[in-house]
Amino acid sequence: MSQKREIYCVIMAGGVGTRFWPKSRKSMPKQFLDILGTGKSFIRMTFERFNKTIPAENFLVVTNQNYKSLVLEHLPELTPEQILCEPVGRNTAPCICYAASYLKSKCSDSLMIVTPSDHYVANEELFSQTISNCVEFLDNHNALMTIGINPTRPETGYGYIQRSNSDTISAVKCFTEKPNLEVAQAFLRSGEFLWNSGIFIWKTDTILSAIERHLPDMYALFNGIADQYGKDTEAEAIAGVFAQCRAISIDYGVMEHADNVFVHSGDFGWSDIGTWGSLYQHSRKDKYANVKPAEGCYTYDTRNSFISLPKDKVAVIAGLRDYIVVDTPDVLLICPRSEEQNIKKYIDEVKYNQGDKFC
Amino acid sequence: MSQKREIYCVIMAGGVGTRFWPKSRKSMPKQFLDILGTGKSFIRMTFERFNKTIPAENFLVVTNQNYKSLVLEHLPELTPEQILCEPVGRNTAPCICYAASYLKSKCSDSLMIVTPSDHYVANEELFSQTISNCVEFLDNHNALMTIGINPTRPETGYGYIQRSNSDTISAVKCFTEKPNLEVAQAFLRSGEFLWNSGIFIWKTDTILSAIERHLPDMYALFNGIADQYGKDTEAEAIAGVFAQCRAISIDYGVMEHADNVFVHSGDFGWSDIGTWGSLYQHSRKDKYANVKPAEGCYTYDTRNSFISLPKDKVAVIAGLRDYIVVDTPDVLLICPRSEEQNIKKYIDEVKYNQGDKFC
């Protein structure tokens, strides 16, 4: 009998997330915010979601070195050695390659669940069941597994996964980037396309083989420093690797090319809550369809608006329809919901004039 | 030759002014705010306007006892004895009666210039000339003088003074309260009506005689405690007087009934700046007709709006037309300019739910 395979959860938490500006900042990105008002940050909710079945010592968090102390603050169950620090963000492929080669150096036979740190899951029980199914499937398959979400609307902000058939677990035909509305509507009608959740499950050996094949330079870079992991020289070695590493997503660099990719479809109320608009969609509304603090926010002739205030601040808001109002101690944003794609532009102008202080 | 008559300036500074909420508060009413961004509060500007010709020791400020220290902070040239404290606000007649009887007890022959503390004057030179003309006129007349402003629009927020003729100094036919728009338009066309600036000039003896005649009870109350002025018992005596005193304006209680009322017309760029709207009218606008801080306020597709921010706060504001946005450290107000008459209602609801803390 083989030894039981160790299951690890790798949380990717390097995003700088400007789309929830001014609440999110470079110094405090979305994964560390309690934007849903649950009392817990996204990264905390992500940890707790997996910690039901995976012990704390089997977590790794890959993040920017600037966020290491924030991660430890939000996840005090982890030790500093469990935080893998990127000197710069290089998209998901180097992040995953780092985690996989690190795990390989620690444990000869492990399975990785890779997850973003800042997504929302409504039905945690169904979610856990989905993960279990994937782990079980991997007992008999050397597959690269992803979780795809049955789409409920022609969302243009997500990537899509085309599956071969409608089984719960199906081989993947292809990955696609964010479509335009017409394409998204066709995807939705076809029934063949799932939203790409960015959650992956695979044996460490399987993903390393796939990276070796499809991103051989990257594989070689990390393989070349594998003997430094856990030593004082690790940070310096990693700095050298990231300096040479191209920025590429695991989807684009590996998943689109590999022939052993499978998708498990899911209906567990997933959202990446990537915009103020999607947060509005997922939040409880008052009878005028406003999302606003339970106390201290007085609205008049105001409809379909999202309002966020600092703790203990009072606001009187009259005559707004379909607006986003986000007040923070040092920045106030008022913007029509239909204009939120311009927030990046607003930030750029603030940065140009004021420097990084408010961004 | 008679001794030169002493000229006193009496600044009425008891208003609680909620119309500039949330910037003005009960604890910090308009007269103590630098709402025009000049670097000086209204009461400071008022003091300096008169201090060009009247020495600091000839000022009196009548205010609520809660504002005494604020007054001394803004007008450090004054001594505590120059602040007459009202235990409660009872409109302008008791305020003026207190100041007049106090002055009478100090000085046998004085002239009073009575002024609100929170108005704006653009042309200070013309204003000073107007005051000089009035003082000169009083050399030969025992008149109750007011200053009337040549109206430039059918303002419904002001009281009006009807004059007998179009001389610079004219006898007054009558005082009227705030008219409706149709009446205000007729007033403007007639050329007979001036805006009531609330500035009065008279000999102390003349106003005391008029109060004795038209408000005999009030006169008797203050006359009965005149021997307490400047003594330790003054505050207690005044508390007793104000408890019995009816609340009435000097216009309604005296000026409308007296037969020796004259008005000096003026064109010195006066405004009471009583609302966010009038502040908007008097402020410098950008090319999109927005009034906003010179720095840190980024507007997009925003027109005809008034924006006020705390020092050093950044705001991004998109898609607003004709709005008032006033942000303070603890309260945010967003409201169409056309709805500003509702601010009182908003304050009442905030007060009902949150108590006085934010009002």
Account of the protein in words:
- Two copies of one chain form a homodimer.
- The first copy, chain A, is of the alpha/beta class and 359 residues long.
- The first copy, chain A, is built from eleven helices and 16 strands.
- In chain A, strands 6-9-7-8-10 form a five-stranded mixed beta barrel. The first copy, chain A, has a three-stranded mixed beta sheet with strand order 13-15-16, covered by helices on one side.
- In chain A, strand 15 and strand 16 form a beta hairpin.
- In chain A, helix 3 packs across helix 6, helix 3 packs across helix 7 and helix 6 packs across helix 7.
- At the A-B interface, strand 14, strand 15, strand 16 and helix 11 of A face strand 14, strand 15, strand 16 and helix 11 of B.
- Strand 16 of chain A pairs parallel with strand 14 of chain B.
Secondary structure blueprint with pairings:
Two copies of one chain form a homodimer.
Chain A: E1 6-12, H1 42-51, E2 59-64, H2 68-74, E3 83-86, H3 92-106, E4 110-116, E5 120-121, H4 124-140, E6 144-149, E7 160-163, E8 169-176, H5 181-190, E9 193-203, H6 204-214, H7 216-223, H8 234-244, H9 250-255, E10 261-266, E11 270-271, H10 276-282, E12 297-300, E13 306-308, E14 314-318, E15 323-327, E16 331-336, H11 343-354
Keywords:
homodimer; 359 residues; alpha/beta; five-stranded mixed beta barrel; three-stranded mixed beta sheet; 16 strands; 32% helix
